[in-house]
Design a protein that fits this description.
Blueprint lengths: L2 H13 L3 H5 L6 E5 L6 E4 L4 E7 L5 E3 L2 E5 L7 E7 L3 E6 L5 E3 L2 E3 L1 E3 L5 E4 L2 E6 L15 H4 L5 E5 L5 H12 L5 E5 L5 H9 L16 H4 L4 E5 L6 H13 L1 E2 L8 E2 L3 E6 L3 H6 L5 H8 L2 E5 L7 H14 L2 E2 L1 H8 L6 H16 L3 E2 L3 H9 L10 H15 L4 H8 L3 H9 L3
Parallel strand pairs: 3-5, 13-18, 13-19, 14-15, 15-18, 20-21
Antiparallel strand pairs: 1-2, 1-12, 3-6, 4-5, 6-7, 7-10, 8-9, 8-11, 11-12, 16-17
């Protein structure tokens, strides 16, 4: 690296408060190249230098460290993508034709994860490495367990990821049949038996034709019985008999049928409490818990998962985020757990139309609705700072306007915006 590049990197990194070093595109990251015509090219940035040059046809070609993209018109161009300071990639024009970075023209710039670069009519999207098949921070499932016939019980609050984990286990199991998800709480007591075991024609009023239940539908696959705490006592007995023999009789049927089905159960309540209350048979509970019993902790008890979830969301959606956003989210109680956080991030992605996430008005709105923070309650000073920052943002970062509206001194505003006390 020459002295000019070193100076640019150090000054830019210093000016950004270290964010270039933290968020910058780096070795191992993913690059998607999308021309105006033709298919995309995806590659992993595993070299310290790439040349990006023009070609006459509309396809994209990648040869080692050479990237050839289409040009429109007679002009040709060349750009250099180099790893500076052994850490982050810098994009430099090699002539008088600029590139467009997130909508602004430039000739030399460090790149961040989530950046979109237009060179001619070809778009380059820089993002973290491709998402893992099993998200970081999720419950680790041994492949040998997933591929066994052990029944599995998942217990945890709503939104902790029980359905996602059940699907992951099915995917790891190697079973060729379907993954069938049956939420028992969504059916009336009179219908549940037919939904699980099926029925024959004429078994009851309205049974105008025979129906395969979830057990047959999941043959050679996995049956996920969600909200098993909703299962009536009478059906607990019938399901217990099935678990012992792997044979069942449809409602109104006269013969038994055998299936090869992997059972995964989920409950939003602790089943031991249902046994104590007499709402679940003790032998049924012991049968469910005799396989693998997994408790998924709520998000408020595993704050470190928030960063893992953010990282996976960023990878899948090609965005980046500020570190203070993680700190902000860790103060929340998240009663809806992982589902609530992911829904909030998706809303933020759609409504903000940005590729870099910061703490914004949508986060503050969520914070105001979070009445269950208990141990995470903010101090009065924190509330003041958040309010000042919100007003400052809404006024377009105009300090004079903010001072006028809030009736505070310039030093106080600086303190509030810096987050110091």
């Amino acid at each position: 690296m020459n002295q000019i590049s070193q100076y640019i990197y150090r000054e830019a990194n210093k000016f950004s408060g270290g964010l270039i070093s933290e968020r910058g595109a780096r070795i191992g990251d993913s690059l998607v190249i999308a021309p105006i015509h033709g298919g995309e090219k995806r590659l992993i940035l595993n070299r310290t230098e790439y040349t990006i040059s023009s070609k006459s046809d509309f396809s994209v070609d990648v040869f080692a460290n050479k990237i050839l993209i289409p040009t429109v018109g007679p002009s040709s161009f060349s750009f250099l993508l180099t790893l500076e300071e052994g850490e982050r990639f810098l994009l430099k024009a090699q002539g008088d034709i600029p590139f467009k970075l997130n909508g602004s023209y430039g000739y030399c710039s460090f790149l961040e994860r989530g950046d979109r670069v237009m060179i001619g009519y070809t778009e380059f999207l820089f993002s973290p490495p491709m998402a893992r098949s099993q998200p970081k921070g999720s419950v680790d499932i041994d492949r040998r367990v997933a591929q066994s016939d052990l029944s599995i019980l998942l217990q945890g609050e709503t939104g902790t990821g029980k359905t996602t984990l059940a699907r992951t286990i099915h995917q790891l199991s190697g079973r060729g049949g379907r993954f069938v998800h049956l939420n028992l709480a969504s059916f009336s007591e009179g219908i549940i038996e037919s939904e699980i075991f099926g029925h024959v024609k004429g078994a009851f009023t309205g049974a105008v034709k025979s129906k395969d239940g979830a057990l047959l539908e999941s043959h050679k696959g996995t049956l996920f019985l969600d909200e098993v705490d909703s299962l009536p006592i009478t059906l607990q007995t019938k399901l217990l008999l099935f678990l012992d023999s792997m044979e069942f009789r449809p409602v109104g049927g006269s013969s038994y049928r055998a299936v090869d089905t992997r059972l995964i159960f989920a409950s939003g309540q602790r089943l031991e409490e249902l046994v104590s209350d007499g709402r679940m048979r003790k032998d049924f509970y012991f049968r469910l818990a005799s396989g693998l019993d997994i408790h998924l902790a709520p998000l408020r008890e595993e704050e470190n998962k928030i960063e893992d979830i953010m990282e996976d969301f960023a990878q899948k959606n090609g965005i980046s985020y500020d570190r203070p956003l993680i700190t902000f989210y860790k103060k929340m109680s998240w009663p809806g757990n992982v589902r609530q956080l992911l829904s909030h991030l998706k809303r933020k992605l759609v409504m903000s139309k940005r590729t870099h996430f910061t703490v914004d008005h949508m986060d503050h709105e969520l914070e105001q609705k979070d009445f269950n923070r208990s141990s995470k309650m903010m101090s009065l000073e924190e509330m003041k700072r958040n309010y000042v920052k919100t007003i400052f943002k809404k006024l377009g970062n105009q300090r004079s306007k903010t001072l006028e509206i809030l009736q505070i001194s310039p030093p106080t505003l600086r303190t509030m915006l810096s987050g110091t006390t």
